[in-house]
Amino acid sequence: MTIYKRYCRETFGPDGRLTDFDITYPESFNFAYDVVDVYAKEEPDKRALVWCDTEGRERILSFGELSRLSNKCANVLSESGIGRYDKVLVALKKHYEYWIVVLALHKLGAVMIPVTHMLTAKDYTYRIASTEIKGFICTPDGDVSDRILEAVRSAGISPCLWTVRQSKPGFEDLTAAVKAAPEAFARRETSAHDPLLLYFTSGTSGLPKGVIHNHIYPLAHIVTAKYWHLAEDNGLHFTVAETGWAKSSWGKLYGQWLVGSAVMVFDFDNFDPKMMIHVINKYKVTTFCAPPTVYRYLVRSGIPEMPSLKHATTAGEVLHPEVFRLFREKTGLLLCEGYGQTESALLTAFFPHDDITPGSMGFPSPLYKIALLGSDCKPVKPGETGEVCIIPKREGEYPPGLFCAYLDNDELFREVWRGGVYHTGDSATVDEAGRYWFGGRFDDIIKTGGYRVGPYEIENVLMEHPAVVECSVVGVPDKLRGQAIKAYIVLKEGVAPGRELEKEIKDLTNARLSDYKWIRLIEFVDEMPKTVSGKIRKAEQRKS
């Protein structure tokens, strides 16, 4: 049984290609009640979650079990005063309890704020002070609870504090409380337009922004799961993502369950390619999604047979063509790239029947009307750089799955929605076939000698050099050109920086680029400045 067809209208072309996709829903739609509890009623034993960790522990949960456990959890949270519109921070890593907590908060109509456990006390303080939270649920691992206590004291508030699996000083044991709670929980009133999730962006160019999604957001990920991940009914989908980031909602929850697929969760701290392959093969994962970095490690480690795997996808950064080639060579699978934002669902990707080309972010999703617009808000020609923008399909219609507000920043919301069009702030080009090619954040676009250059094309070529492990290209002030193109490079272990190597890298890279895209400066560094989510802070590099 799949539920997704109850909430959408699909239009297909003569070749079977999805050409249009619209979401339909009742005004009271709530994912926990209308998807998970419906599965629990109609097919209670259907597998929903397969969880394991690096210590060999395992937990497999059905929809029936998730429904009961989320009811019990909702009763515990409700008893502590958590209700509709209340904000609750959640830092549960990849613990299976996260999925129980998500559903419980949805049933209460509360606003969940997923965050990573890697944040500092200062980071937590910023988020707590920004949101007026009523509760915080966290992992007991390490000193996470200590950092949260420090942040709560610094903010001068007294929210309800819980850990899972064990008690910690200042925190209640949520697992023990859930075990003792009653199973019955009557449906609470919620609206499809109520706030559901609040994600903080990575903060690559400034302080993290609070992005608010409503209860319609889960339905927008039907396209993500069904037509990009190719998740299938009774299959097992594995997305590599920590629950503190929006990618988790893309690949570890909403769309996959809507199309009937179970979700694979591997709870680990330190990435081990061989262990990940073991998990894929042991549990017979059918579809897989990970950032290009993971595929680079898999390729370097040597990829053994993965007979159960039918489809693989990637997003988060530009995929190197050599990784695409080697992965295909080893598995027979084409890596399908996709693109979107914390503020949106999937915007572009390679879908069934598309001509897959490595390095491209694919074609526009049928869920949205997408265009590349210039500074005059008019469509650019193929090959020209424009801004990725979302245009409402119909007058007065708000694109489903797109965020409904920035936290306490109406001015910024109006700015990104100027002219009746949502401006992503991301640059791209489109080729004659209609494929989109990512150029970077508009802040990252380099203006040199009268030309506009996106850093990703240059970085892709730089990564071809065997000595280069990581690189970042930015524009720096230059009296002659306006900006000169500079590359920051992390070298392979054991390789020493020097003028000869610098010249070699420049010669190799520049020979493959148009002269206006040539690298003028190189700086070898030990590491890149990064956000907690691992994104390079190019703004810092431009200043240095």
Q: Roughly what fraction of the amino acids lie in strands?
A: 25-35%
Q: Remind me, CATH topology of one domain?
A: Rossmann fold
* Classification by helices and strands: alpha/beta
What can be said about the biggest beta sheet?
A: 9 strands, mixed
Q: Which parts are unreliable, with pLDDT below 50 for 5 consecutive residues or more?
A: none
Helix content: 25-40%
Measured between the Cα atoms of the first and last residue, the distance is: 56 Å
- How many β-strands, per DSSP? 28
Characterization of this structure:
The protein is an alpha/beta fold and 544 residues long. Among the domains are: 26-39 and 63-203, Rossmann fold (3-Layer(aba) Sandwich); 447-543, ANL, C-terminal domain (GMP Synthetase, Chain A, domain 3, 2-Layer Sandwich), CATH 3.30.300. The chain is 29% helix and 26% strand. The protein has a 9-stranded mixed β-sheet with strand order 4-3-13-12-14-15-16-17-18, sandwiched between helices. It has a 5-stranded parallel β-sheet with strand order 6-5-7-8-9. A hairpin with a 5-residue loop joins strand 16 (335-340) and strand 17 (346-349). Helix 1 packs across helix 3, helix 2 packs across helix 6 and helix 4 (121-131) packs across helix 5. The radius of gyration is 23 Å and the shape is globular.
